[in-house]
Design brief:
Strand content: 15-25%
Bound molecules: 1,3-dihydroxyacetonephosphate, iron/sulfur cluster
Distance between the termini: 44 Å
Radius of gyration: 19 Å
CATH class of the largest domain: Alpha Beta
Number of domains: 3
Oligomer: single chain
Structural class: alpha/beta
CATH architecture of the largest domain: 3-Layer(aba) Sandwich
Number of strands: 12
Helix content: 40-55%
Largest sheet: 4 strands, parallel
């Protein structure tokens, strides 16, 4: 069966079940092509919280589908590849977080959405890479615990010198595989290009960037920038829409290591099978859902730009 036929069958099933297909910006091109919404973690959370669809097909990784299930109780959330996880999210557990909280009583916890529902349930507020700075600034506290991404945390901390950060040493293995040497080589090959990277990158890599932002932030930046050439420091899947938005511009991946194996798992076959069987469903226990929802809703209450 051709990709086009699979895509048509998926669209038919979505219509039949009143479903919506949400895809993260790192998904395979052919999956992004048929998504109703593509976006960063923040945009997809917002969409999940307000959709009128009965079924959400989440093409992304487990924590994203879990967030959709938390924000949209009563909706069926399908994750076509239940094995699509996020190693960073697995780097902190609720028990470990509780231990850290006990060492710092009363200090609020800001949790990056790349985390389990259980960890969110033990947190005060969530953030994404798009709104982390606003979330941190919204806190009426001069000290905070930031989990699990040490790189996003340290990137944000430099803009908030009045607050003391307690970091968790989690990280994204995909972004940390992008080395200074790889970026410097691309810069030497393309001296007229701007270098843009995600805040999950190692600090020494972010220090080389002309702009550091979330995945959707990269679309806005590259579309509106007068520059014609960009070295892109995030997962390779982002190039698809960057190129679609700006066919006259050139996008160069900063390192061949920028492939997230989990983000690349979901194929059209998986999406089709998921819609045919209405499985696998992502669920969160009501006790955890209520608490995690509080942290997510607090984040969503912060106005966007
Ligand atoms: P954003 O889409 O929020 O920029 O996050 C990137 C990411 O690593 C998702 O796993
Ligand atoms: Fe997790 Fe990194 Fe993959 Fe995003 S790119 S899902 S943070 S491992």
């Amino acid at each position: 069966m051709s990709d086009v036929t699979k895509q048509q069958l998926i669209k038919n099933l979505l219509k039949e079940h009143n479903g919506v297909l949400l895809a993260h910006n790192y998904m395979r091109d052919e999956v992004q092509e048929i998504a109703d919404i593509t976006g960063d973690s923040l945009a997809l959370s917002i969409e999940a919280s307000k959709t009128s669809a009965d079924i959400i097909v989440f093409c992304g990784v487990h924590f994203m589908a879990e967030s959709a299930a938390i924000l949209s109780p009563g909706k069926k959330v399908l994750l076509p590849r239940p094995d699509a996880g996020c190693p960073m999210a697995d780097m902190v557990t609720a028990d470990e977080l509780e231990k850290l909280k006990a060492e710092h009583p009363g200090v609020p916890v800001v949790t990056y959405v790349n985390s389990s529902a259980e960890v969110k349930a033990h947190s005060d507020i969530c953030c994404t890479s798009a709104n982390a700075l606003k979330v941190v600034r919204s806190l009426d506290a001069n000290e905070l615990i930031f989990v699990p991404d040490r790189n996003l945390g340290r990137w944000i901390a430099r803009f908030v010198p009045d607050k003391k950060f307690i970091f968790w040493e989690g990280f994204c293995p995909t972004h940390e595989r992008m080395t200074v040497a790889a970026v410097m080589q691309k810069k030497a090959e393309h001296p007229d290009a701007l270098f843009i990277c995600h805040p999950e990158s190692a600090p020494e890599v972010s220090a080389l960037a002309d702009h550091v932002c979330s995945t959707s932030g990269m679309y806005d930046y590259c579309r509106t920038s007068p520059a014609k050439k960009f070295i892109i420091g995030t997962e390779a899947g982002i190039i698809y829409k960057l190129q679609l938005d700006s066919p006259d511009k050139q996008f160069i991946l900063a390192s061949p290591a920028l492939f997230c194996p989990n983000m690349k798992l979901t194929s059209l076959d998986d999406v089709l099978l998921s819609l045919q069987t209405l499985q696998p469903i992502v669920t969160v226990s009501e006790e955890i859902r209520t608490k995690a929802n509080r942290a997510l809703e607090r984040m969503l209450a912060i106005p966007r730009d």
